[in-house]
Amino acid sequence: MANAFFNVPIPINEPVKGYAPGSKERLELQQQLKSLRNLELDIPMYIGGKEVRTGKLERISPPHDHQRTIGHFHAGDASHVTLAIEAALAARTAWAELPWEHRAAVFLKAADLLAGPYRARINAATMLGQSKNAFQAEIDAACELIDFFRFNVYYMQEIYKQQPESLPGMWNRVEHRALEGFVFALTPFNFTSIAGNLPSSAAMMGNVIVWKPANTQIYSAQVLMELFKEAGVPDGVINLVYVDGPTAGDVIFSHRDFAGIHFTGSTGVFQNIWKTIGQNIHLYKSYPRIVGETGGKDFILAHHSAHPKAVAVAMSRGAFEYQGQKCSAASRVYLPSNTAEEILGYVKEDLASFKMGDVEDFGNFINAVISEASFDKLAKYLDDAKADPNVEIIAGGGHDKSKGYFIEPTVIVAKDPKYVTMCEELFGPVLTVHVYDENEFEETLALVDTTSPYALTGAVFAQDRYAIDLASKRLMNAAGNFYINDKPTGAVVGQQPFGGARASGTNDKAGSQLNLIRWVSPRAIKETFVPVTDYRYPFLGSEPAEDLNRDKGL
Ligand SMILES: NC(=O)c1ccc[n+]([C@@H]2O[C@H](COP(=O)([O-])OP(=O)(O)OC[C@H]3O[C@@H](n4cnc5c(N)ncnc54)[C@H](O)[C@@H]3O)[C@@H](O)[C@H]2O)c1
Ligand SMILES: N[C@@H](CCC=O)C(=O)O
């Protein structure tokens, strides 16, 4: 066997393709969409490398065309969760003991496959299954996930490199063990990249995984699973099951080998999971790692010195891209009285130009919201707002689920800064605006800070540097991702590590060293070359002083 210290390639963010009319990437993507058009995929679970079909079929349809069937998945039950845990534990030793450069190579290969032969496929699946337009699919399912793979491999190497000091006569080392058990990856519908990153980041560090995606993301999850297999993730290392959340939770959170959860989703679900883990803490072999990124009520605050057009564009893109279904989406805005009318005028012009409809028409900026449940919830907020004399809907407000789950991009102006849609996460294309007295910037900072329990993303717009400084200080804890003169969405791996605090999560920053460090259990090793042979201190007369230096810490 030959030995060497390896350096992984320096990661560079994957360039975003433009999908302009006539471009190669657009033709490839259209081809994929066309070839999927007449298919009804039969989607199995993947346990221990085997495809598992239960015959209990659940229909998958595009949110923008709910009468059309694009596939069925085989639903599992508690027994499949147990099988997935067993398969993961059986794969654990070989995977954890594989030299790290092989794990790195597997995920670097996954990145290259995704950047090449899988790109059109994952984008098409994300467009159809989750109703994303081509550009939104590209930045998520292709580019962000490629970046997660490549940057995480680099961060893994950086973690392994960090070593302690050694005094003469000894060699101190730290090695990073995989967690002793299995990790549960519980993933949301809205980002294919997050669905791919939560199992793969923990797996990269040597862990074995039981992965349960949201039902509404299974169509693209299957493509990810095929990608993992082709990249060389061994059987049993990542196991994909389709069961309802509480059923999975019952089995997983009472298992002795449960070693950690990597979660992204809503705050309520995460808080219940944390409670259950707390109640069961005596059952586990080790204290489980709990990592969860959850909801947000993300803000834009404009100062009276802000550039009106820049604020307006941040609102139009930050609130409505992917129908406002980004955890980072702007959903409450505070505008100063001097420029509010001008800003809202630009926003109304933007919204009037948005086209809404099927993802296969590349002219549509807006598509459908994810499900009927989400549609019904959003429609109720809009109908309540229409009936409320204290608020005004200045754009949108309509909804129609006859063909797809379409909610018009909507702007509500609320006099009361604590109006319900200023406070609660709606997760849809609804933006609420409060106009404040331009002379009350400081008071408004306090309002922004205290209106919601979340602290995920937020943006401040100002030309006045003192205002920027004041906002940065007063909103220190109001956002884990804080933007100055930019929209609060669109964090890029390696550039703006992503995650929020307060009710928005544990802020372990996906796509960073901070996150990967949660998936290892370090072992410190001290090796003494010539052990001391007498217990006595020097003042007792026999041990030479230099021997004791080695054991300064006793
Ligand atoms: N902070 C972030 O980085 C981030 C990123 C993306 C999404 N989100 C948040 O995710 C939410 C939207 O995603 P979603 O609708 O898929 O979230 P969700 O909480 O409904 O679902 C997330 C996952 O949990 C499962 N689940 C649901 N109920 C469960 C239960 N009772 N027990 C166990 N598992 C259960 C789901 O099936 C899914 O796999 C929003 O709140 C959004 O803000 C946060
Ligand atoms: N990281 C994404 C949001 C992920 C949550 O849905 C952004 O920064 O817009």
Automatic annotation (TrEMBL):
It is an enzyme of class 1 (oxidoreductase). Pathway: Amino-acid degradation; L-proline degradation into L-glutamate; L-glutamate from L-proline: step 2/2. Belongs to the aldehyde dehydrogenase family. Residues 56-513 form the Aldehyde dehydrogenase domain. One of its GO terms (cellular component) is cytoplasmic side of plasma membrane. It catalyses: L-glutamate 5-semialdehyde + NAD(+) + H2O = L-glutamate + NADH + 2 H(+). Keywords: NAD, Oxidoreductase, Proline metabolism. It comes from Hymenobacter sedentarius. One of its GO terms (molecular function) is L-glutamate gamma-semialdehyde dehydrogenase activity. The keyword tRNA processing does not apply. One of its GO terms (biological process) is L-proline catabolic process to L-glutamate. Its EC number is 1.2.1.88. It holds the Pfam family Aldedh. This is L-glutamate gamma-semialdehyde dehydrogenase.
